[in-house]
């Protein structure tokens, strides 16, 4: 028995980083919105500095629909399929922005033009074999005003490196031009971070503090960061981490035009016989509801975006919604974020406090910021050193072959060295490939009986070569700062990731892309898709700010073209 | 050197106070400097002290708990470098969690501890508790490297599970029943929960006093549910 609800203008599926931002420009334009969220509201009282609860046990105090539908994975179509124990994302109003690292980067100009820039500088043969990479349908200059809106509306701290072409060496000299500075100065440094920055300068590199969606000073009547050390997978106890649950969603609610529905588990996007969407079916406590709407904006995570489209079959879309060209699930990539470097120093680093967004970056080996003529790869990696340590994970440290894993010698080793290691985070250019994709798993199902998503993907030579190059540079940097040991870590798999891209890629060609340059389906004019699933390249930095800028842009497009989209 | 705290030898303190009391009162240096005496030699002395008082069992049987306590104490020993998993009450943490957050691993402990006991008795001709420290080490190494037989799956899997949970019980928030008297955090030199950290606190060489507070000693936070412990 399905309860039919009162029709609305727009239903947004998911109130996380993407959907949570899109609701503001929509409601500001006078559009009525129903936001369906699988999780619930959480407040600062829920955000105890508790490593066991936050980092080990995946937030047991919160509704976690995502944990019921963890994707399966295999490296290729002939390999065996496995299923990870947990999903890296969370469900809540605000989504994973509650516990993410809040690094809020703009992509660099090259990330939008990988094909044309590579072809121009090195020749078309340098595009890796089997890659399906395309240029974005626009460049950084198109997205710049939307990056700016999100930076000011939600609050991003950072040091500009390029304002209207004027380079400022305190910031990232490689970033594309921005039209004004960040609304807040960068988060402060630490003694160890200062030491690393100095070592980078001595190597002739250009270190700079990274951008963060975290208050470096009071902003919009919310407190500044307290640097207490539990930001990594933890929510903020003083509301200094600027997710949509604190910013865009409450502002949209104040307009009276946003209805937030929590614990809504979307199961289907409904269509009429012409294939246009008519609304969304969801389940709450085993009761089924249908929310009719003129427009649907799909804004769950990459895996769930792909899955809900594939599950929403109909006569007009027998292979899944917006999938008559077979592009849903294609061009999938999970960011090559593994393959970091861990260093051991002969002195305490005092890294017990701080946060992953408090650190120093080097972009000299990212994107096309250096000459690749003598290299056998394109793209690169961003080197990031941060202040982030908690006791259980510190005790779980590797011993660099200097001690066994338990007993008196191990205990002596961790007593000496628990505060003497640092692990760099190196995000690398990752490309889409013909044989990396997602589809529905033929066996594994969620508790409602729907198939979960299956990831078929592996990193290729280009990603592995970037890893080798960036690990070499990172080790050099650590040694220059006094490290006595460095250890290169493995790249890992393309399994469930916090940085999952593609599957509903954005582009002008409807034969190779699911959504057009505005984020609306090529096949279903009143269906929009928000999130990193529309991104065709990863860049070498965290996706969230780009996701939010794109979401704002799609919402603004809808508001401006309401009649055209809903006609 | 490391045995010598405030002019009184740690061993004397232990003898005077009894082990349980000692864990409450002995200040531990946040980080033991390099070059301390080898801890192994002193370990047997400390192991002869009165063990800390046991809590009522919540999930494990007395026999299972006895063996688990011994294994935890081998992983993070009590020695000249200070208290270990035994004083932290890591086994109590595990026992409690097996009725909550770790309930799905209750059977893995039941069958794994039984397999451990059987393997040691058949390969070493005695119960684990009765072996010499050296034989205990060698038996535990067999389990660690997957050479021990009779386990459901690899014995390494059981070893890794126990090690992971021993670390959680020694270095997690005391709210969950382990890290008693903050001995785990003191062992690492972790200065503890602070809700507001200054620039000076993050300087190289900063000396911070341990706060010795649980996250839930602050009434700012909703406590985790009992069934999630």
List keywords for this structure.
heterodimer, A: 567 residues, alpha/beta, FAD/NAD(P)-binding domain, eight-stranded mixed β-sheet, 22 strands, 23% helix, B: 229 residues, two-stranded antiparallel sheet, 2% strand, globular, disordered N terminus
Ordered list of secondary-structure elements with their pairings:
The complex is a heterodimer of chains A (567) and B (229).
Chain A: E1 2-4, E2 8-13, H1 19-28, E3 33-36, H2 51-56, E4 72-74, E5 82-83, H3 109-112, H4 114-122, H5 140-155, E6 162-163, E7 166-167, H6 191-202, E8 207-209, H7 248-254, E9 258-261, E10 265-271, E11 277-284, E12 287-298, H8 302-311, E13 333-334, E14 341-344, E15 359-362, E16 381-386, H9 391-395, H10 408-417, E17 421-428, E18 437-445, E19 451-456, H11 461-480, E20 485-488, E21 500-501, E22 527-529, H12 544-560, H13 562-566
Parallel strand pairs in A: 1-12, 2-3, 2-12, 3-9, 4-19, 12-22
Antiparallel strand pairs in A: 4-5, 6-7, 8-15, 10-11, 11-12, 13-21, 14-17, 14-20, 15-16, 16-17, 18-19
Helix pairs in contact in A: 1-7, 1-12, 5-12
Chain B: E1 4-5, E2 8-9, H1 10-25, H2 39-47, H3 62-75, H4 85-88, H5 90-97, H6 106-124, H7 133-145, H8 155-171, H9 183-188
Antiparallel strand pairs in B: 1-2
Helix pairs in contact in B: 3-5, 5-8, 7-8
Overall description:
Chain A has 567 residues and is an alpha/beta fold. Chain A has a single domain, classed as FAD/NAD(P)-binding domain, CATH 3.50.50.60. Chain A has helices at 19-28, 51-56, 109-112, 114-122, 140-155, 191-202, 248-254, 302-311, 391-395, 408-417, 461-480, 544-560, 562-566; strands at residues 2-4, 8-13, 33-36, 72-74, 82-83, 162-163, 166-167, 207-209, 258-261, 265-271, 277-284, 287-298, 333-334, 341-344, 359-362, 381-386, 421-428, 437-445, 451-456, 485-488, 500-501, 527-529. In chain A, the strands form five sheets. In chain A, strands 1, 2, 3, 9, 10, 11, 12 and 22 form an eight-stranded mixed sheet that branches. In chain A, a hairpin with a 5-residue loop joins β18 and β19. In chain A, α1 (19-28) packs parallel to α12 and α5 (140-155) packs across α12 (544-560). Chain A is globular, with a radius of gyration of 23 Å. Chain A starts with a strand and ends with a helix. Chain B has 229 residues and is mainly alpha-helical. Chain B has one domain. Chain B has nine helices and two strands; from the N terminus they run ββααααααααα. The termini of chain B are far apart. Chains A and B meet through α2, α6, α9 and α10 of A and α2, α7, α8 and α9 of B.
């Amino acid at each position: 028995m399905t309860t039919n609800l009162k029709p609305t203008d727009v239903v947004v599926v998911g109130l996380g980083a993407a959907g949570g931002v899109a609701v503001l420009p929509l409601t500001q334009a006078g559009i009525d919105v129903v936001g369906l969220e699988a999780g619930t509201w959480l407040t600062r009282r829920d955000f105890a500095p508790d490593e066991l609860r936050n980092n080990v046990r995946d937030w047991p105090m919160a509704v976690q629909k995502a944990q019921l539908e963890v994707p399966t994975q295999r490296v290729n179509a002939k390999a065996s399929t496995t299923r990870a124990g947990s999903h890296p994302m969370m469900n809540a109003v605000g989504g994973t922005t509650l516990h993410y690292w809040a690094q809020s980067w703009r992509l660099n100009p090259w990330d939008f033009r990988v094909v044309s820039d590579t072809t121009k500088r090195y020749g078309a043969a340098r595009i890796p074999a089997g890659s399906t990479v395309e240029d974005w349908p626009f460049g950084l200059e198109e997205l710049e005003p939307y990056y700016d809106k999100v930076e000011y509306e939600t609050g991003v701290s950072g040091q500009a490196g390029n304002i209207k072409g004027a380079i400022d060496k305190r910031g990232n000299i490689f970033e594309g031009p921005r039209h004004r500075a960040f609304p807040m100065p960068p988060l402060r440094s630490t003694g160890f971070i200062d030491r690393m920055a100095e070592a980078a300068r001595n190597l002739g590199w250009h270190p700079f503090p990274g951008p963060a969606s975290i208050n470096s000073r009071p902003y919009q009547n919310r407190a500044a960061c307290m640097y207490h050390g539990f930001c990594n997978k933890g929510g903020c106890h003083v509301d200094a981490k600027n997710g949509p649950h604190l910013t865009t969603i409450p502002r949209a609610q104040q307009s009276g035009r946003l209805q937030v529905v929590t614990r809504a588990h979307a199961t289907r996007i409904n269509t009429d016989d012409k294939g246009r969407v008519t609304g969304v079916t969801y389940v709450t406590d085993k009761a089924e509801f249908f929310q009719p709407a003129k427009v649907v904006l799909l804004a769950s995570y990459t895996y769930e975006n792909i899955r809900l489209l594939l599950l929403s079959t109909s006569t007009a879309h027998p292979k899944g919604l917006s999938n008559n060209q077979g592009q849903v699930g294609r061009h999938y990539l999970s960011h090559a974020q593994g393959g970091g470097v861990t260093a051991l120093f002969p002195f305490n680093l005092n890294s017990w406090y701080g946060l992953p967004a408090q650190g120093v970056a080097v972009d000299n080996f990212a994107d096309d910021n250096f000459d690749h003529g003598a290299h056998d790869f394109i793209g690169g990696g961003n080197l990031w050193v941060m202040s982030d340590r908690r006791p259980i994970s510190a005790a779980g440290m590797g011993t660099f072959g200097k001690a066994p894993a338990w007993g008196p010698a191990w205990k002596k080793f961790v007593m000496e060295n628990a505060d003497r290691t640092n692990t760099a985070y190196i995000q690398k250019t990752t490309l889409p490939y013909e044989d990396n994709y997602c589809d529905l798993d033929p066996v594994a199902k969620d508790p409602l009986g729907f198939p979960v998503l299956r990831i078929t993907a592996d990193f290729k030579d280009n990603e592995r070569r970037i890893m080798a190059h960036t690990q070499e540079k990172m080790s050099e940097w650590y040694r220059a700062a006094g490290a006595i040991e460095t250890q290169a870590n493995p790249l890992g798999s393309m399994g469930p990731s916090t940085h999952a891209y593609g599957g509903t890629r954005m582009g002008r060609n409807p034969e190779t892309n699911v959504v057009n340059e505005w984020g609306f389906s090529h096949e279903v004019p009143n269906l929009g898709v928000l999130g990193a699933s529309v991104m065709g390249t990863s860049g070498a930095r965290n996706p969230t700010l780009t996701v939010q800028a794109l979401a704002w842009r799609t919402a603004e497009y809808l508001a401006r073209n309401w009649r055209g989209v809903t006609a | 050197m490391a045995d010598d705290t405030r002019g009184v030898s740690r061993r004397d303190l232990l003898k005077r106070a009894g082990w349980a009391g000692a864990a409450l009162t002995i200040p531990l240096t946040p980080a033991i400097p390099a070059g301390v005496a080898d801890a192994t030699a002193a370990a047997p002395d400390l192991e002869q002290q009165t063990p800390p008082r046991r809590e009522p069992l919540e999930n494990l049987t007395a026999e299972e708990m006895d063996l688990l306590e011994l294994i935890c104490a081998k992983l993070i020993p009590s020695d000249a470098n200070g208290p270990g998993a035994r004083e932290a009450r890591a086994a109590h943490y595990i026992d409690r969690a097996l009725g909550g957050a770790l309930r799905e691993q209750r059977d893995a402990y039941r069958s794994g501890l039984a397999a451990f006991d059987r393997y040691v008795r058949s390969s070493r001709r005695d119960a684990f508790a009765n072996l010499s420290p050296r034989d205990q080490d060698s038996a535990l190494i067999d389990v660690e490297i997957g050479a021990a037989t009779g386990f459901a799956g690899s014995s390494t899997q059981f070893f890794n599970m126990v090690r992971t949970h021993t670390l959680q019980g020694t270095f997690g928030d005391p709210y969950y029943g382990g890290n008693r008297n903050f001995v785990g955090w003191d062992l690492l030199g972790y200065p503890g929960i602070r809700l507001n950290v200054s620039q000076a606190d993050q300087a190289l060489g900063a000396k911070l006093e341990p706060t010795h507070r649980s996250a839930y000693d602050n009434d700012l936070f909703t406590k985790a549910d009992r069934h999630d412990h």
